Structure formats: structure tokens, C-alpha cells
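Sample entry (318 residues):
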Amino acid sequence: MRHFLDFEKPLAELEGKIEELRRTTDAGGIDVAEEVGKLSDKAEKLLQATYAKLTPWQKTQVARHPDRPKCLTYVEELIEGFIPLAGDRAFADDAAVVGGMGRFRGQAVMVLGTEKGTDTDSRIKHNFGSAKPEGYRKARRLIELAGRFGLPILSFVDTAGAFPGVEAEARGQAEAIARSIEACLDVPVPFVATIIGEGGSGGAIALAAADRVLMLEHSIYSVISPEGCASILWRDAAQAPTAADALKLTAQDLSRLSLVDGVVPEPLGGAHRDPAATVKAVGDKVWASLEPLLALDGGTLKAHRREKFLEMGRSGVV
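Predicted structure, serialized as C-alpha cells:
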């Protein structure tokens, strides 16, 4: 059953009527093909009109849609012969961060990502995509491993942010994130990161300080969640829509500010309506971004990456 967001209620009603009419036909009732066709056209136009004018808060809801393709979906569809690698070699394995080696369109690569899960059991297993220090230490280990073996890195980021619990802070959450970002900036291989859903705070940057940063059309990327921002500034999480607008967290805002390098179009109605088409579009854009980087040596890649992030500060956009 399709999950509809709050702002999609008129669409849900229309599609509900269409499904009801189709069931009537299937049950041997009268032919309602003409009526179904009219309602389908109406639903298509309503979907186009709705998604042509999404607010930042509505885009946030789309980015969090439970049926949106997750990190492991991209890995399964895009990476051949994927071999998962686990553990930080210091404390434990964190299932919120997934990683391993495989081939992307014939090119050997290291893959990283944050996985939210697709049902209750997998969401609990992956801690809803919120990593603890051992997750970021695992990411750092794999990034450094990729550097030693000359493997380009692909990351797929979808996290509300790092796990905020006391135990994570006690185990050095901030240091682990900082070291992961440092590893991203210092690795002498091509690195392409894609924000596929939420890109929340340092928990996202830890896997996305890359040569090329891509975002899906309805993904978000921000220093804090709209709810967190609203709670701090207004002491009221209900102000989240106002915060979302102020944060400039959409792919379109960040592209205009030159903080990301490309926006991947989504199927009409969001990635959850056609996951296969979304995965293919991401794969094409990732390859188009990665291929030119393969010709550059490690020193050049590191210098360009460093300059890229320093320029963001010089230009005054961050």
C-alpha cells in the first residue's frame, strides 16, 4: 500500500477512487475504463502541480519518505560483487554505516553509506541510520584502506545525524566524526558522495567531504534538522516549517550556493514512486562525475578537494 504524505491528501483521495473503480471492474462489474482514465489524468495533473511548488518543509518530508530507496538498494543495484567489510578494529561494528568493496561499471571501488532500514526490524538493526563513534571509525578505516589500494570511493548518505546518546559522546563522537572528515579530505583517490535522502549535520559530512557532492532533487542537506533548529531558536518544534525555509537545505538552494556539485532529477512524485528509475539516474550521474576524476593523480585530487572546501568559506556562503 502506498504511503501518502500530509500534503498529498487530495492525491490520496483521487488515487483511492481510481483503485476502487479498478476493483469494481476486476470483480466483474461494469466497465469503468473511461472514468478511470479521466481520474488518472486528473491525478497526474495534480501530482505535477503539487511537486512543482514544494516548500522546503514538504521536501524534507519527501526526503524522509519511508519507501524512498535506501543506501543498500543503491549498493545492490549499482555495485557488482559487493564484499561488505565490518568493524572499526577498536570497539564494535556499527550497522548504521555500511561499507565494502565491489565494482561499479567495471571499476573497482570502495563503497560507504548510511543505512536507515526499510522495515521495523531493519530500522532497529541499523539504528535508523544514526551512527555511533564506531561507525565513523569504520568509515575512516575503509577510506584509508581505499587510499592504500587506489580504490575510488562512492558514498550514499541518508542520515538524520549522528547518534546523540550519552554513550556515543562518552566514546568520542565528535572526535570520530572529525577524523572521518579528515580522512575524506586527505584520501588520494577520487571520491563521489551522493545525498540520497537526509544529509544531517556532521554525521553526513563525515561521509561526504568529497571531490563531487551530488544530491537527489528532493533530498536535504543541513547543519541541523528543521525540528532541532526550531527547538533551539523558538523553543517550539512546531516551527519546523519556518526553520526549514531559513536553513536553505534543499538541493536547489545548495546548488545555487555552489555547495553541491550536481542535482539528480527524481521521477515525478519523488524517488519512492519509481525506485528503479531513481537508482539508474543516480548511477549515471555518479559515473559522469567519477570518470573525469579517474585521470587525476592523488596529489592533484587532494589539492583540488582542499581548495574546493576552502573556497566555500572565502565566498561567505558558509
